[in-house]
Amino acid sequence: MRLILLGPPGAGKGTQAEILKEKLGIPHISTGDMLRQVLKEDSPLSKKVKRFVERGELVPDEIILEIMKQRLSSADTEKGFILDGFPRTIKQAQGLEQLLKKMNKQIDLVLYFATSVEKIIERLSGRLVCSRCGMNYHLKNMPPKEEGVCDKCGGELSQREDDQEETVRKRIDVYLKQTAELIEFYKSKGILRTLDANRDAQEVYKELIRLFEKEGFNLKSNDFHKISERAESHA
Ligand code: ADP
Ligand code: ZN
User: How sure is the predictor about 156, in pLDDT bands with cuts at 50, 70 and 90?
Assistant: First the structure.
């Protein structure tokens, strides 16, 4: 199954992607996580992307598309993938289409995480991220079992630098100006589904599962075929 999670920063895309990746057995591909990894290196690429990420602006499309081209050619994406934070512009969406076309693949569903601005700010201002595995927590809504420590891997939790209020406002602005138009883009292709992402993570997850079932994806099996495709191949 090939999925895109679309929505503003703080919509909870990363949280759902982490759960889904276990459930579906396909990788969670977050361009934000990949860029933060790049920033830890001392490389020409790191120098190029630094100022954009720090300011909450978008990294240029060509750079992102090159990174994604490499990532999507890796063997672990064979059965599918969950894209989180990409595409973020129409140009990236078109670039992704071309990439997939060459591989004879296409996106199955775009899940749009509809979220109010108040929720976004509340979530980002309390967000904690594991420095080792990238798992997200929230000071109030989703605290770790032990303060400052990741439940999953024991890594250290910290606040992301770009989660400071001023940068958060900038990121919301960038989202509205450059990314929100992807909603219409995918709606017109008939693959967009909208989730109410203002609710708790567990509620959103339940809605996701219902949605998959409604769309005819069999969730019991690890290797994800659409039930209809399976029925055909068994006929
Ligand atoms: P958010 O919580 O804002 O969704 P991400 O972790 O997805 O944060 O991204 C953090 C930053 O990385 C963005 O503000 C932007 O600078 C950069 N970035 C991530 N994905 C992309 C992308 N697809 N295109 C351009 N820039 C990106
Ligand atoms: Zn962790």
Answer: very high
pTM of the model: 0.88
User: Where residue 78 falls among pLDDT bands split at 50, 70, 90?
Assistant: very high
Q: List the chain domain ranges.
A: 2-233
Contact of 69 with 99, CB cutoff 8 Å: yes
Catalytic annotation present for 69: no
Q: State whether residue 196 is helix, strand or coil.
A: strand
Percent of the chain with pLDDT over 90: 77
- Neighbouring residues of 73: CB distance < 8 A, sequence distance ≥ 6: none
Distance (angstroms) between ligand 2 centre and the Cα of 149 equals 8
Nearest to 98 by CA among 51, 61, 136: 61
Is residue 228's pLDDT more than 60?
A: no
Residue 105: how many other CB atoms lie within 10 Å: 15
Q: Active-site residue 220, yes or no?
A: no
Residues whose beta carbon lies within 6 Å of some atom of ligand 1? 9, 31-32, 35, 52-53, 56-59, 64, 85-86, 88, 92, 162, 171
Position with higher pLDDT, 32 vs 234: 32
| CATH number of this structure's domain 2-233, picked from the four choices 3.50.80.10, 3.90.550.10, 3.90.226.10, 3.40.50.300 | 3.40.50.300
Contact 178, 6 (CB under 8 A): no
